[in-house]
Amino acid sequence: MGRYVVRRVLQMIPVFIGTTLLIFLMVNVMGDPVAGLCGDRQCDPATTAQLRKEFGLDKPVGRQYLTYMGHVLTGDFGTAFDGRPVTELMGSAFPVTVRLTTVAILFEIVIGIALGVVTGLRRGRPVDSLVLVVTLVVIAVPTFVTGLLLQLLLGVEWGLIRPSVSPEAGFGELIVPGLVLASVSLAYVTRLTRTSIAENRRADYVRTAVAKGLPKGRVVRRHLLRNSLVPVVTFIGTDIGALMGGAIVTERIFNIHGVGYQLYQGILRQNSQTVVGFVTVLVLIFLLANLLVDLLYAVLDPRIRYA
Hints:
mainly alpha; 307 residues; MetI-like fold; 13 helices; globular
């Protein structure tokens, strides 16, 4: 197992370098950061030259990337155009988005897997058809429509929640935003679990367990569910990074100042240091989540062994 982890970590290094290089190049060609800093009024040539030298934008892109990665290895993600260190922005944004993502993942695990197991065991029955229709509607409706609708009904019309989230953004305030963020993924987890459960119900090892007279609950928990969760865990693991990076719409609707908000502001103002810094951390989270998923395979399926 240890050798496998070391091998996977070594494989992550070129992936990380290639991904961050691609992001760095894309951000640098999407516009002139100095022009975004000056706003509607163009800076005079002297000020432009001074700003480009101050932020290292006068150097070749390749050299800029090497300088940036050297600073990243020391924990320095640069300085935003407003003078604040990017690490300071991360310190205020990431805890909020981590809490929001945690709520969303819990919804996926608890509700998504539970509905998938129920419908998989009752395939073809009315409850199965109802859940399939509801999940299809959830997938078809855009997230911003779901968010605005829940905000209007629960926050404005019925007064059950605050229409916007406070700057502290505790777990209690993030329940509805977390449900909105997880809605589409929750529907996919439900359908994926249902399909996996329905297919594995016909497997020989399940029929053997039933023939031995084992209780139905034990057959489902110890045999059927563990093997059926392998593709579900894969989806949820890769969804962690997607939820954190794709929370822009949800955070804008509920006025949450998290990672999505900072990315939106960075793109709007062409603040390349902020955008590249935040995306670099998201890439690391995505890679670590995938490594964790691979290790969970051996826990769920005893047949999987890593050398």
